[in-house]
Amino acid sequence: MAQIGFIGLGNMGLPMAQNLIKAGHPVCGYDVNAAALDKFSAAGGISVRSLDVACMGVDLVITMLPAREQVREVYLSKASAGVREAGNAAHRLLDRHVETARAVAAAANVNELEMLDAPVSGGVAGAEAGTLTFMVGGGDKAFARAKPVLEAMGKTVIQAGAAGSGQAAKFATI
Description:
single chain; alpha/beta; Rossmann fold; 9 helices; 9 strands
């Protein structure tokens, strides 16, 4: 089972992380909201109080954040350099905006990390039921490694092309 760092445990992120735990993945989670961390811990997750600790020694980092500003802060700001450099995280998943996905992929590449953008469709009900649809942009190797993890949270996982293509595919379905 993949060791997972999960950032963003709100309405979508918490049930997604819970589905990963139910599937047997050890999940270390971070959120700015203490109540969300408490719910995550009650579900069997390991709650931490900083982004870089959530990413240390994991195989995969998943972000489920409300807006591109938060995604950029997590991956691109100097304050969060530890997220990009922590442990041996091989993948980055995020859910917002083509240009942000491409910028994060470029930053990940500098650090020799693989990155996938994987926007979701299905809403909170789909997150709770584990029936989300993921439209994934990124390389074949990274996609193959991340697919089993995504399948623990969703029903349909589609590879759409290079970094940013997942975002573009989601825009095409709206």
